[in-house]
Amino acid sequence: MKFLVQQLQKYRKKPLVINDIIDLSGPVKENFSDRILDLKPVKVDGEISYGSNDRITVDLKLNGVAYLPSARSLAPVKYPFEINMDELYVQDEESLSMFSETEAVFLIEKNQLDLDAAILENIVTNLPMTVFKEDETADRPVSGQGWQIIKEEDYEPNDILDTEKTHKLGDFFPKSDNKNKDK
Fold first, then answer.
1. Measuring CA to CA, how many Å separate 42 from each of 2, 22, 26, 35?
2. How many CA atoms lie within 13 A of 13 on its CB side?
3. What radius of gyration do the chain's Cα atoms show?
4. pLDDT in tens, 93-118
5. What is the mean pLDDT of each run of 10 residues along the chain (183 residues)?
6. Cα end-to-end distance, the chain, whole Å
7. Do the Cβ atoms of 74 and 131 come closer than 8 Å?
8. What is the reported pLDDT for 59?
9. Residue 182 three-state SS
10. In Å, what is the CA distance from 127 to each residue of 32, 39, 66, 87, 147?
11. pLDDT the model gives residue 123
12. What is the pTM of this model?
């Protein structure tokens, strides 16, 4: 969803109502494939208002499902989300300088409001950094061939190290009679 500023100017008195479904799976695969395995079409509901001083207010609710990689197995984890997106856009640097750096105000570039990019940014920033599959939670540790994840309180160093099989680093390198061979 992209809107030219001229298109939005006619919504000074009554906001533009948005009720749409958008597919952002292409940009997700292109830019965020390490964080998001898949993004299903996103339901977008809300309003865009053109206010005083040429300020554009975007008030949207985003509903969708993302598939994120499990932090343990990298298997897909279904993650439904609902995100409220409230942003203010201005059209020039002078208007932008009127706000403090802590306020979420964005500059419209090329006389166009690119909601697809803003929506995708909101989704990415609101998704958790780590997720786990149900069977990978801390209550049910995962394991594999020859390994397992254990709780810290269950750790027993003597259970893991077999002193007969312990080697020093030097045991893996051939012994040499010439100590200064490289000189």
1. 16, 5, 13, 17
2. 1
3. 27
4. 777 777 777 777 888 888 888 899 89
5. 85 89 92 91 94 86 94 87 91 76 79 89 91 70 66 68 58 67 54
6. 68
7. no
8. 93
9. coil
10. 12, 12, 9, 18, 30
11. 94
12. 0.69
Q: 84 vs 2, 24, 88, 130, 172, CA distance in Å? A: 19, 17, 13, 21, 58
The one-letter amino acid at 78: K
CA gap 131, 70 in Å, rounded: 5
Q: Which residues contact 93 (CB under 8 A, 6 or more apart)?
A: 107
pLDDT at residue 120, as a whole number: 93
> In sequence order, which ranges of the chain are alpha helices (DSSP H)?
5-8, 25-31, 93-96, 115-126, 157-160
Report the length, in residues, of the chain: 183
* pLDDT confidence of residue 174: 76
Dist. CA 63–CA 21, nearest whole Å: 9
